Amino acid sequence: MGELLGIEDQLSITDLHDDLRGQRLREVAAKVIRQHFREGDVVHYKQWFDLVVADGYRIGGKNPAATFLTQVAHIGTVERMGRRSGLYRLKSAA
Question: DSSP state, 42?
């Protein structure tokens, strides 16, 4: 009601649906991996996913782990270690 009367801020569209997807998911995932690992460290995507969730974020999609896995493959600061291993390495900032 306060929103209608102009005495409270309107609810942001991001507040209505704050599940991470797309570019925002990639940004958060990149930030989290840098906070918890050093360059050259190898991490399984499930551990990485768990760290993102533990930091209070929610991943969108019908299968959040699949959404996460699809998106992290497009982060330029990490590289996949082998096919279908689920392992990723934080690249050096060369």
Answer: E
